[in-house]
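PROTEIN DATA CARD
Card holder: DUF2236 domain-containing protein
Chain length: 448
Origin: Massilia agrisoli
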Amino acid sequence: MMSARLRADPLADDTIARMLGGGEGPQWETLAIVNRQLAQWQTNAGLAGWKAGAGVPAPVAAALEDYAAAAMKLPDWADPAKIARAETLFMDMSMTSCTLLFCASLPECYVVPELAGVLHAAGQLEQHTDYRIRATAAMIFPVMLHGGLLGAGGGVAQALKVRLIHATIRYLMLRGDPAGALQHGGAVIPAQPPQGEGLHQKLSAIGWDVPRNGLPCNQEELAYTLLTFGYVFLRGLRRLGIGLPDADEQAYLHTWNVLGHLIGIERALMADTMEQAEAMFTRIQARAGATSFAPDSRPALAAALMQEMENEIPFTLLKPFPVLLTRYLCGPGAAQSLGLTARVSWISRALFAISMGAVRAIDATVRLLLPQFSIARLLTRIAGYRFTSRVLMDQTRPLKLPDALLHQVGHALGAWQADPKAPDWMNAVERRMTGRATTPAAQGTVKC
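Structure generated from the sequence above:
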């Protein structure tokens, strides 16, 4: 079988080719029409029987309608009970989820050189780090909130948009259908001057070496990215000493696998257990470590992400903590690949090491009497609240979600202001350290 790095997504690729393949060169106006139509995909229910608007060219309308009808179907193996459990877990873990997004999932996304190269090409993310963070949140929240995949939420609708975005990136970077770029062992697409200042024009101009780099957004990269938001998150909980029971981990992985199906990932490239996930994750990183990619965008992407977090930490002594926590959660190999090995002041390193050791020791001891007790959970919630309130909840830059989903996200974030697993005194400490109101109701609905 052809390498996963040379396999993409036939359904989505065929859809984009049907819409863009009728003329010579990239069709910028057609892409604008497609984007306007995709903006109508707001809820799962709205996808059923969806029809393109008046004035949409017939080939575009037919391609989008066929795609929506085929892609919105959940796989036969989707388990509603596991998905419901994962939704509950996501709500319970709340702000801790945000800390692990910043310090584990996103950094690990950058470790694979070709994937970092696509992320760099798709938006100059070193200069627009908050875009990547907010775009990721706009994907995660609709999927993981109640009803995101099985109910009236918007997880399926968001997933189908992301799937077409991946296919559009492939088509533009390869200047045509991926099938054409794979003929005769793969094509080398030369760089050329962009035909405009927009993102689509820039993507179409950068050039790409298929034999060396594989297809952009290929099956291996998609599977790896899925692991960073499922496996890496669960691994992070374990490393913090607040890991979940096996059944809960499997429910969480299962839900992300259902999302993987919706965004076009092959079933054979999904992991059902942590052991399978670890093996696949390690294998992909090992393959990535044995290849080179020029220019290497990974250090710049990671540095920009760390800087985004450091900007929100008020105390100089604590500003290195995002780097130190990322090293701790991702390990020395990832830190080396991301260029996060620069010296940190010994005071900050000592404070971090002492804090982590003390937290693990205290949690392990107190849990013998109080199983729900966790200082690690408290501290990661405080950090997550800081990052979330300053980056995701900035009311001057709303998340790009339909109004109904924004309201659902705001309600969920408001509910996250209290940890249901923590005793009242720990919630009181958290409120004091974050400066929040006494109760969620006192602050009203959180706006995104």
